[in-house]
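Thread: quick sanity check before group meeting

JM: Hey all, I'm pulling together slides for Thursday and realized we never actually wrote out the predicted structure for the chain we discussed last week. Dropping the sequence here so it's in one place. If anyone has concerns about the input, flag it before I start.
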Amino acid sequence: MPDTARPNQFALLRQRRFAPFFWTQFGGAGNDNLFKFAFTVMVTYRVESASTLSAGLMVNLIAALYILPFVLFSATSGQLADKFDKAGLMRKVKTLEIAIMLLALWGFVAGNVSALLVCAFGMGLHSTIFGPAKYAYLPQHLNMAELTGGNGMTEMGTFVAILLGNLAGGLLMAFRQGPLLAGLACVAVALLGWTAACFIPATAPVDPQLRINWNPFTETARNLKLAASDRTVLQALLAISWMWFYGVAFLTQFPVFARHVLGGDEAVASLLLAVFSIGIALGSVACEWLARGRVEIGLVPLGAIGMTAFGVDMYFATLNLPHEAALQGVAAFVRDPAHWRVMADLFLLSASAGIYSVPLYALIQQHTPVTHRSRVIAANNIINALYMVVCSGYCAALLVAGVSVPVLLLSVALLNALATAFLLWRQPLYGQRFVAWVSRRAVA
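JM (edit): ok, ran it. Output follows.
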């Protein structure tokens, strides 16, 4: 593993130890969202009559089936990543993705909703198996000076891929032959991902003698206990899961927020998604510059401050917005200066979330013993999924109670302040490192 005195995260894209891995995970994240969004558009606009469920319930069923494997099989996936060569495991996952997308192609062309629901579960399983190998791969191929930058690049790639996947899924489904085009695109992306995975260098298994416990319930309990055995790691896991709660709360409200608060059409909702995704991507890659090659947990409070401050300001930015009789398209929306503050706040709060999360991932990778790193990351995926489910319930409860979307998002921003205060109380080192980081920057 080469040492780098002045790490450059973008230079990693020219190196075999990182580039094939990056494009493999990029394709997987993109295909997840291309498939899910194309399927969502299909059941909403084309084949609602093919199901006994309403489009709204179908959308939530798709999301639930995708998340379910994270709860059920993350523990097993962590064991597989610790026991076997991660590069070989990733290639097998990509082969599974090709099979799932071939079924999806048939399901799109035939309008078979049941087959596509199976694919939604399958793609969730694909991501569940890939996740622990993905995050445990990096510290085996990057040195400590590169770890923050490598994680930043990975997070940036993930959110850019999510954005492009959603946009591609919506664009393709706008054509008359949309289902066919979307299905072919899913297969093509899966093939490209498998090709990239073939170039990932071998990654030695860290515990080849591990005996796999195939019972997901007892292994999930064991993994959570393993993560809880180290207070530093546990607090980082909880902090990352909180970021997913925060992010899901904003992402799921974009359609309603765009229409009923900002007076924009579907394209404006897509614009909000684009701004949010680009913000997280840029915040993630900024971490290496801000940390100067260190694993700098002092950035976590900095990101948390931004997540609350810009979230609160976005609420005030929505007060007294003009409301047109007809919904505005993107061009009219961005011409109105009244919307600029909302867009700036959305960009800055999402960039803050990127700054918040990357050091936490790097800390877990650095602090967890290599022999069970994948299983701890699997525990993180389980906790993330639980937080996302709780977030969905929280948002649904407030909306049913008649709370407006701006107030809902304001409440999440304020809860973030409480979550940050709890983290600093439980782990004062975060606050101490933040003060030290600010001091260093002030005299630089």
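AS: nice. Residues 1-5 have pLDDT under 50 and may be disordered. The first helix runs from residue 19 to 45.
JM: adding both to the slides.
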